[in-house]
Amino acid sequence: MKLAGKVAIVTGAGGAGVGGLGVTYVQALAAQGASVVVSDFDGEAAERVAAGIVADGGRAIGVRCDVTSDDDIDAMVRAALDAFGGIDILVNNAGLARGKWNEMSTLSREDWRYIMDVNTIAPVRCSAAVRPAMQARGGGCIVNQSSNGSQMEAGSYTVSKYAIDAVTRVLAAEFAEDNIRVNGIAPGMMTAKMPAAQVQSLLARQTVRRQGRPDDLVGALLYLCSDDSAFVNGQTITVDGGMARIPNQ
C-alpha cells in the first residue's frame, strides 16, 4: 500500500479514453491505498467508475469536469478537498485528437485550439489549481500524460504532446520550491482504433510486437506517484514497446 493516506485526482478517468486508461489509473491508485477523485467530462461515467472502486473497498468520488473550464477545474479541486481533506497526486490524463491524429496544415483553427486546450493548456491549469493544496501537505506529485507521438510526426497530436513534455520540464522547475515533483508518461500504441494496416506498420517498429495495454503503464504511474521516484523530476518516461528508440526515424 505505497499510497496509503494519499489523495489523487485523475482527469479523463470516466472510461471513454483509449482502452479505458484513466479507469486503469484510478483503480491502480486506489489499490495502493489512495483516495481517488475520478474526474471526467462525462460526470455520470465518473460516478460509475468511482462507485465500482467503493464497491471493491476503496475510497472514491466521481466529479464532472470539463478541463477547458477554469470554473470546472476549481470545482474539482474543492470536491477533492471537501471529500478527502487534501490533494497529494494529480494525473493529467485527459486528452484527445478529435479523430484527426495526422492532420497539421489542413486542421481548422477551431480544432487546433481545442486540441491544444485539452492536451496542453488544461494540464497547466489543473496543476496550478492543485498547487496550494499540495503546498499545504508539504509537497506532491503531478504526472502528465504524454505520448511517444511527441517523438514522431503525427500532425497536431505530435505538437500538443511535444508541448506537454515541455510543460512537464517547466512546471518541475517552477514547482520545485514547493516539493512538488512533475513528471510524465509517454505511451506508445495502445488499444487505439486505427486501420489494421496502420497498426501493423507501427508494430513493425516496436521490439515488443504487440499493442500496448493500459496495465502496461501502471508500473510507471505508481513509480512516479510514490516515494520510489523521490529523486526523479521533470522527466517523461516512454513506455511504448521499444518503438521510439531513435526519435524522428
UniProtKB/TrEMBL annotation:
Pfam families: adh_short_C2. GO terms for molecular function: oxidoreductase activity. InterPro entries: NAD(P)-bd_dom_sf, Sc_DH/Rdtase_CS, SDR_fam. Keywords: Oxidoreductase. CDD domains: SDR_c. Belongs to the short-chain dehydrogenases/reductases (SDR) family. This is Unannotated protein. It comes from freshwater metagenome.
